[in-house]
Amino acid sequence: MPARPEHATKPKSPKKVCYAKGTEVRMADGSWKPVETIALFEEVMLGGMVIGRGEALSDNAFRYKGQIVTGSHAVLDGARFRRVEDTVAAEPFDIGRDGMITVYPIVTANHLMVLRTHIAADFAETDASGDQLPDQRLEELNADADRLECLAWIADEGSIFGDRPLPAGGSLRDYQDLVAGEGWQPVPAA
């Protein structure tokens, strides 16, 4: 990225929900791809088709479970979506003297993404994001108890992260169908 001229003032940075360069996103085929290389129409795990992508500057960065992410990003934290900056795992990230970091927003059909260590909402978070305030989007993300329970089960089970094979009967399409609420039933405790 070209250096900002010395006389330039720091731009105002609205709260953005994005990940920094190098953050790996799990694709629908089980592979991993850096967020900055994901293209429109590709398929990401749980989120489905990528319908929007971009590049932006932010002055609001945290380290969350090893990933550099904006503080306003919604992540699955236990069995609820929370803003990164409101989680116990969030650690402020020193951006450096310029005070800005390049981040890469992604919008998916199902508004979900899988990272190496967690499940997150996408940039839009909901279908009605343009008409909603951030708190309203978070409320909508947390409104469907069955969907949240399913996502928490997927995260707790853990094979969706890393390079481990997926569990028998838990194909990527199965996960997408589960999260979309098509016939999902809570998993009985063992």
Describe, in plain words, how this protein is organized in 3D:
The N and C termini lie far apart (51 Å). The protein has helices at residues 134-141, 145-157, 172-179; strands at 19-20, 24-26, 32-34, 43-44, 48-53, 56-58, 61-64, 67-70, 74-77, 80-83, 90-92, 101-104, 106-108, 112-114, 119-121. It has a three-stranded antiparallel beta sheet, with no helix packed on it. Strands 4-5-13 form a three-stranded antiparallel beta sheet, with no helix packed on it. The chain is of the alpha+beta class and 190 residues long. Strand 2 (24-26) and strand 3 form a beta hairpin. Mean pLDDT is 83; it is low at 4-14. It is globular, with a radius of gyration of 17 Å.
Write the layout of secondary structure elements.
Blueprint: E1 19-20, E2 24-26, E3 32-34, E4 43-44, E5 48-53, E6 56-58, E7 61-64, E8 67-70, E9 74-77, E10 80-83, E11 90-92, E12 101-104, E13 106-108, E14 112-114, E15 119-121, H1 134-141, H2 145-157, H3 172-179
Antiparallel strand pairs: 1-12, 2-3, 4-5, 5-13, 6-12, 7-8, 7-11, 9-10, 14-15
Structural class: alpha+beta
Reading side by side through the largest sheet, how are the strands ordered? 1-12-6
Number of strands: 15
Topology order in helix (H) and strand (E) letters: EEEEEEEEEEEEEEEHHH
Oligomer: single chain
What is the overall pLDDT average? Answer: 83
Outline type: globular
